[in-house]
Amino acid sequence: MHCPAKLNLSLHVLGNRADGFSELDSVVALIDWHDELTISDYEGDSPSHGDVHFTSNDPALEALGEDNLVLRGIRAVQARFQKKHQTPLVFPPVHVHLEKCLPYQAGLGSASSNAASAIKGYYKGMRRLMPELKKLSSPELGFAGASVGSDVPLFLLEKSFIHMQGRGERIQAIERYVFNFQEAQLLILKAEHIAISTKDAYAWVHEANAYSTPDRNFASLLARGYPLTDLTKYMHNDFEGVVFEKHPELRGLKNALLDAGAFHAMLCGSGSAIVGFFDRDTMPSPVERDLLATSLGVKLWQTTFL
Fold first, then answer.
1. Domain spans of the chain?
2. CATH 3.30.70.890 correct for 181-303
3. 155/114 Cα distance (integer angstroms)
4. What is the CB neighbour count within 10 angstroms for residue 18?
5. What is the per-residue pLDDT across 39-58, written as a single tens digit (0 to 9) for each?
6. For the segment 15-39, what is each residue's pLDDT rounded down to a tens digit?
7. pLDDT score of 228 more than 60
8. CATH code of the region 2-173
9. The pTM is what?
């Protein structure tokens, strides 16, 4: 299963909530860049986590144990099944392998996407292996996702463009009537030495009172097929100012993408990756992209919207 990354095309923090989370309003797009999650029957002697044998090409994820969001997603599905049946259930062992490609602490939502794929894949697998299990509704799976992380429900929706509100649990697909693939050229840069925790980034926003009010026109104009070149004034990220203050070199990466021909560039989520939006005519060639990455001392990826 693909675990796609996401881009926040707009990201407004509206303030603190009584439950300790932050109130958000964000237009999100999924992009064609992903990790890979595989769930299969396990035939070994002793799974590493009770009924789940978890492996990854990244040993650090294996070392997380039950704190890994993939395991937490599976446990959330099991809890929902238990609640549905109101009786103890014994789940058959499975092997879960995560092939990690997306960078960490980049603002691309990779861990949440991993959790969402685990929720979907494990649910389907258990329904196949245990036909007696009662069906879980989409809202029930959404609640399972929200219990793992605020970004998980948007990946469960499996839509390319999404309007996300609340702490992330209120999501609505943005169905585009027209899609202009000329706007779908993306370059993403990440400095390897900069990693930003989401918790820290939110703390910086709240300390600075760096809140803003979303413009409701953005989602509707996007749905009507307006190209992003006409919508850049709506593409705002409240994290950008506070993150750039802490890491001014990221502002330099944003400017480098604009100098390279991007019609817009911005911080990805809470950071630390930077994305540049190009049309087909201004996208740097592969040679130019390699030179750009070398000159800036960063990793660079070219991708598109899903």
1. 2-173, 181-303
2. yes
3. 9
4. 6
5. 999 988 888 888 999 999 99
6. 988 887 889 999 999 999 999 999 9
7. yes
8. 3.30.230.10
9. 0.94
Q: Do 124 and 132 meet the contact criterion of CB atoms below 8 Å apart?
A: no
Catalytically annotated residues: 6, 151
Structure tokens, 100 = 């990690």
Instruction: Show the tokens assigned to 1.
Output: 């299963």
User: Cα–Cα distance between 207 and 210 in angstroms, integer?
Assistant: 8
Same fold, 2-173 and 181-303: no
Give the residue carrying structure tokens 């996401």: 6
What's the pLDDT score for residue 12? 97
Q: What is the pLDDT of residue 62?
A: 94
